[in-house]
Design goal:
PhoX; binds calcium ion; 9-stranded antiparallel β-sheet; binds MU-OXO-diiron; 6-stranded mixed β-sheet; 7 helices; mainly beta
Length: 675
């Protein structure tokens, strides 16, 4: 027990009920307004969005992209000209556009013609590329917040924008492409999922599922070393890439490899077409200075290359290193942290990307091992570690370790997790919370891609059948890490499980509904997890689910978690695999009090087919911004000409195509959100 005794803040709203309506629902006494929808112009010269698939590819360089995801608010001063992080009435929103719902980007005729991944229409590729990336938009508070389309800060980064490659791997042979023979630049940031911020006021955008976009050969056609790398990051099979961007009909006539860059097949004699290393230029944490529109974003290679979900910092303390926590979101992947070499100097708070060069280009990358006794270890991924130096892959140097850090993490015995999504740090206790969204391969036989057992372990302790054909860990959980001595740079930690997801039909099953969830707070597939900075200890939890969507659309909950130890260590009986398969596991924890309706409560339910992901706030805690990603995504391509059959028409209603949207939420009495 003992949760939040030191925290006077209490959740004050009435829980929002589960539901499958095509609506965005917030508690009584709150208002949600659409702020920034797919296709909305960011300047005054771009036409209003037609939303019928005819808006041009080029125009998307000046429109909201698709699949809004992680975001952060950075205050501007009242004249709108300079940084003032304390201003709650005017600021810059930086926002990721992770992916696209392709059928809603193109005309009904184009959708009906089908998308041949071996011969794509060039204008369609260009539109899809431009609908990815990042937005920076100025928002100003009037009666409510709106986008200032006159702002000189407004801009888009797309999957074609120039990016600098920075840090210890920059210039490595594995990053050389025809675009940058020096291996120090690339085009595009891709599949930008969750995000982070820095103590010097810049934005971090994190490249997650980039691997699927690339055309690649069967790895068996490659040499041993590139084959091992491809197997670990992209799989062994040949592919045209998920959208066929490498295959414009008629070939790449751009003259600058605009499409060929998506094909990592070694091209032999034609060095100008050899983009075998292009995929190595994706999978990074990328730093953007919101206040410096002309500055080229920098890919920070010291933080490692993997399926980056997000990167959130420990509290910056003068004289101590800057520390980031990061999940690698794929089944049976790892949790990482980065510790800077330089110690934090508050004089660097306005240094922009120059401060980034100091703190994010030189440091140590660690990976987590979770022990059954509730202890854990951070192991540095360094070529000097004998286990890494001796790995069968054959690391050439530290740059290779950073570019292929999954393989290095395999070598040091890291713990494969149930899909690590967002990680954030409790601003009062310093505990780190990491969502593990779900894992259909947990508890099955065989080995993970990293060669580890998929069997149950204390940190990934659930195997059950949800009665709808899902097994493994269908509903996900949240692990909590307490650094040894409360020191973010420690190499040891303790951990417990904060919370287990469960559906309403599992309320009676104590080995599934371990956290004792109720109608007011149950959920499945936790993904977004973020601590308010204005209300210390207030955590927001967002879901990206397919298991519970038969009963409820995805949701956001407010939480007031306690501290490490309140959830207790986990023990698992009958961990044998596969003898356990088909049966629920018995999992025991201490009697956690972190998940009562008083400390965990449903705040929002989204429209049909959406995921709730991405949240930020004004610094007074009186406005939050939340992203509603891909409403209506289950609409069949064959129904594109039949609006009545769309899964969703949100937010515009009527017969409109649905749009990923940022919503602004305020309390009608002007109070703190969540109170
Ligand atoms: Fe893009 Fe792991 O969610
Ligand atoms: Ca996510
Ligand atoms: Ca997810
Ligand atoms: Ca279900």
């Amino acid at each position: 027990g003992g949760s939040n005794k030191s925290n006077a803040f209490k959740l004050g709203f009435t829980a929002v009920a589960r539901g499958t309506d095509d609506l965005l629902r917030v508690p009584t006494g709150y208002t949600a307004n659409a702020l920034y929808r797919l296709g909305d112009p960011i300047n005054t010269t771009t036409a209003a969005y037609l939303n019928d698939g005819t808006d041009s590819a080029a125009s998307f360089q000046f429109r909201a992209g698709d699949h809004h995801d992680g975001m952060a608010y950075f205050g501007l001063n009242s004249s709108g000209l300079a940084k003032d992080l304390s201003n709650a009435a005017r600021g810059l929103l930086c926002m990721n556009h992770e992916n696209i719902t392709r059928i809603f980007l193109h005309s009904a005729a184009d959708v009906a013609a089908g998308f041949n991944s071996a011969a794509r229409v060039v204008a369609q590729i260009d539109k899809e590329v431009n609908a990815h990336g990042v937005s920076v938009i100025e928002v100003v508070k009037g009666a409510t917040f709106s986008v200032n389309t006159l702002s000189g800060f407004n801009r888009r980064y797309t999957a074609a924008s120039e990016m600098t490659i920075s840090g210890p791997a920059a210039g490595d042979d594995l990053l050389v492409t025809p675009y940058s023979n020096a291996g120090t630049a690339t085009r595009g940031t891709l599949n930008n999922c969750a995000n982070g911020v820095t103590p010097w006021g810049t934005y971090l955008t994190c490249e997650e599922n980039w691997a699927g976009y690339f055309k690649r050969p069967a790895s068996a056609t490659l040499g041993a070393k590139p084959a091992a790398a491809q197997n670990r990051y992209m799989g062994s099979g040949a592919s045209n890439g998920s959208y066929g961007w490498a295959n414009p009909a008629g070939g790449d006539t751009s003259g600058v490899g605009l499409y060929t860059r998506w094909d990592v097949t070694p091209s032999g004699a034609d060095a100008t077409a050899d983009y075998r290393n292009a995929a190595n230029t994706m999978g990074w944490v990328v730093e953007i200075d919101p206040f410096a529109p002309a500055a080229t974003p920098r890919k920070r290679t010291a933080l490692g290359r993997f399926g980056h979900e997000g990167a959130m910092p420990a509290k910056a303390v003068a004289g101590k290193p800057i520390v980031y926590y990061m999940g690698d979101d794929a089944q049976n992947e790892y949790i990482y942290k980065y510790v800077s070499t330089a110690n934090w100097d508050p004089a660097d708070a306005n240094g922009g990307l120059t401060s980034g060069n100091k703190y994010l280009d030189d440091g140590k990358l660690y990976v987590a091992t979770f022990n059954a006794d509730g202890s854990g270890t951070w192991t540095e991924l360094n070529i000097a570690n004998p286990a890494i130096a001796a790995a069968a892959y054959g690391f050439a140097d530290q740059a290779d370790v950073l570019i292929n850090c999954r393989l290095a993490a395999d070598a040091v015995g890291a713990t494969p997790m149930d899909r690590p999504e967002w990680a954030d740090v409790h601003p009062v206790t310093g505990d780190i919370y990491v969502t593990l969204t779900n894992n259909s391969s947990r508890g099955t036989t065989g080995l993970s891609t990293g060669g580890k057992s998929k069997g149950l372990d204390a940190a990934n302790p659930r195997y059950y059948n949800d009665g709808e054909g899902r097994t493994g860990n269908p509903n996900g959980h949240i692990v909590r890490i307490h650094e040894s001595g409360g020191d973010p740079s420690a190499t040891g930690f303790n951990w417990d499980v904060y919370l287990f997801g469960a559906e309403d039909d599992q309320f009676g099953n104590a080995s599934v509904n371990i956290s004792g969830l109720t109608d007011d707070n149950n959920f499945s597939s936790p993904d977004g997890l973020w601590f308010s900075q204005a209300v210390p200890g207030l955590m927001w939890l967002q879901t990206d689910d397919g298991a519970y969507t038969d009963v409820t659309n995805c949701m956001m909950l407010a939480a007031l978690p306690g501290k490490y130890g309140d959830g207790g260590a986990v023990s698992v009986t009958n961990v044998a695999v596969p003898s356990n398969a088909g049966a629920d596991q018995t999992v025991t924890t201490y009697a956690g009090t972190d998940a009562t309706p008083a400390t965990l409560r449903r705040f929002l339910v989204g429209p049909k087919g959406c995921e709730i992901t991405g949240i930020t706030e004004t610094p007074d805690g009186k406005t939050i911004f939340v992203n509603i990603q891909h409403p209506g995504e289950n609409t069949a391509a064959g129904d594109i000409a039949i609006p009545a059959n769309y899964e969703s028409h949100w937010p515009d209603g009527g017969t409109a195509r649905p749009r990923s949207t940022t919503v602004v939420i305020t309390k009608n009495d002007g109070g703190l959100i969540g109170a």
